[in-house]
Amino acid sequence: MANNSKIIIGCEEWCSFPGLGIPAIKARIDSGAKTSSIHAFNIQKFRRSGETWVSFEVHPLQNDRKTVVRCERPVLDKRTVKSSSGITETRYVVGATIKIGDENWEIELTLANRDSMGYRMLLGRQAMSGRMLVDPSVSFSLEKVTKEKINQYYGQSKSITSGLKIGLLASDPELYSNRRILEAGEEHGHEMVFLNIKQCYMKLDAVSPQAHYRGGAMINDLDAVITRVRPSATFYGSALARQFESMDIYTTNSSVAISQSRDKLFYLHLLLKSGINIPATGFANSPMDSSDLIEMVGGAPLIVKLLEGSQGSGVVLAETKKAAESVLNAFKTLGSNLLVQEFIKEAEGKDLRCFVIDGKVVASIQREAAPGEFRANIHQGGSASFVEITPTERALAIKSAKILGLNIAGVDLIRSKEGPLLLEVNSSPGLEAIEAATGKDIAGMMISSVEKKLGWKRALSSKKQTKA
C-alpha cells in the first residue's frame, strides 16, 4: 500500500536479505533510531583483495539459536553506537540489499549482538527516509510469514537429545547471562535445568547425600552444575555447591573457590603472596585510624570500597583528605568492612575485564566510565568496547583466576604507569557486555568447557553419545 509513492509499514515487519542468504527476519521498525542493526555474533575481521571484510553469523529467528546463517561482507565503517540498554560500543557497518514487500534497496547495517533485544533486526529512519511512512497501530502490513514458510525457508532443525544433564545454579532465570547459558546448553544438545538457589535444599549424609528442589523433586541425576552465585547468596550457594561436590557432580566453580573469591580481603592476601600487583590498599576497622590509613595509600584522592560491594556498588572516590575521612567514618558507623585504595589517575576512568575459562582469556573488553564518573562501570552508564590485551595482562588474569581456583572468572585489571594492576576477581561474571562488545559466544564456550571436563563430544549422527 502506498501514499504519495511511499510504502506504509507497521511497527514490525518481515523482511529479507537475499545477498546474505536470509530469506526472512522479523524487524522492529524504529524511527527513533538513526541506524539499522542486525543480530550478529562470531564477528571476525579479515582481508580480501586488499579490502577489509568481516565474516559473521546470524540467528535470524528470535528465541532460536539452532538456526544459523553465515555471512561475509566488506566493511563500510566502524561506528560508536549507544544501545537501548545504555551500553556504548563500537560496531562494524556493512551494506546489504533489504527486501520488504515488493521493494528492495541497499541499506547500511551495524553488526551487534541483539540476544537481549526483542527483535533480531531493527530498521532505523536512515533506511526508511524518503521511502516509508510508519503506522504504529498495525503489524506486518506487507507480508505475514507463517510457521510453515519459516520451516520451508530454513528447514526444521532436529534437537540432539543425547547430551548431558546440566544444572544452572543461580537466582534469576530471566537474567541475560543465565538465559544465554541455558540457550547455549540446549543448542549443544544438552538438557538444561535452572536451579533457583533459594528453592534448593539438601540432605547431609556420609553415605547417600541428596539434593532436593521445590516440591520434593530429587536432583541427584545431574552430570554437572554451572555455579553462578550472586554475592548476597554466597553462604547458601557455596553450601549447595559443596553438596553437589559430595555427590560427585562436577561444578564449574567449586564451593571453596566461590567462598574465597567473595572475601576480598582474603583473596587480596592470597594474590599478593603469589606476586600479583594491586593498587596500594589499606584496611582498618577503627575510625581513629582514618588519617594514617589515608596516608598509607598515598593520600587523597583515593578509593573507598565496601568489602561486600559488587558491580560497582559501594565504591566511592574521595578527592580530598577531608572527604576521605568523612566517607570512612560514615561507612564505619554502619558497621561495614571496607578498604581504601590508591586512585590510579592515569587510567582515566578505564579498566579491563578479562573473561577466563579453563586457564585461557577467551575475551577481553575495555570499560570506560560515564561522563562525570570515575570508575569504568557499565552498570552505571559506562561503555564497553573490544580491546587487545598485552601478554603481561593476559598472564596476570590467568594467574589470578588460577590462584583462586576459578575455572570461570571475570578478572578486572587497570593500566598504571607501573604496569597492569589487579582490581577484582568475579566468580560469576556477566555475559551481556562482553558478548555484545566482542561478538563472541561466551555462553557456548562455558558449555564447551563442561563438555571437555566430562569427556563428552557432540554427536555427529543420530547415535547416542556417551561420556568417556
Provide an overview of this structure:
The chain is built from eleven helices and 28 strands. The strands form six sheets. Strands 3-4-11-5-10-9-8-7-6 form a nine-stranded mixed sheet. A five-stranded antiparallel sheet has the order 26-25-24-27-28, with helices on both faces. Helix content is 23%, strand content 36%. With 468 residues, the protein is α+β, with helices and mostly antiparallel strands. A hairpin with a 2-residue loop joins strand 27 and strand 28. The longest helix is centred in the middle third of the chain and has 13 residues, at 234-246. Residues 157-161 and 460-468 have low confidence and may be disordered. It is globular, with a radius of gyration of 25 Å. The protein has four domains: 2-154, Acid Proteases (Cathepsin D, subunit A, domain 1); 165-261, Rossmann fold; 280-343, Dna Ligase, domain 1 (2-Layer Sandwich); 347-453, ATP-grasp fold, B domain (D-amino Acid Aminotransferase, Chain A, domain 1, 2-Layer Sandwich), CATH 3.30.470.20.
Short description, anyone?
Helices cover 23% and strands 36% of the residues.
Q: What are the SSEs and their pairings?
A:
Blueprint: E1 2-3, E2 6-9, E3 12-17, E4 22-29, E5 36-39, E6 41-48, E7 51-58, E8 69-82, E9 88-100, E10 103-112, E11 121-123, H1 125-128, E12 132-134, H2 147-154, E13 165-170, H3 176-187, E14 191-196, E15 200-203, E16 210-213, E17 217-218, E18 224-227, H4 234-246, E19 250-251, H5 255-261, H6 264-273, E20 281-284, H7 290-296, E21 302-306, E22 315-318, H8 321-333, E23 338-342, E24 350-357, E25 360-368, E26 383-386, H9 391-403, E27 408-416, E28 419-426, H10 432-438, H11 442-454
Parallel strand pairs: 2-12, 4-11, 5-10, 13-14, 13-18, 18-19
Antiparallel strand pairs: 1-2, 3-4, 5-11, 6-7, 7-8, 8-9, 9-10, 15-16, 16-17, 20-23, 21-22, 21-23, 24-25, 24-27, 25-26, 27-28
Helix pairs in contact: 3-11, 4-5
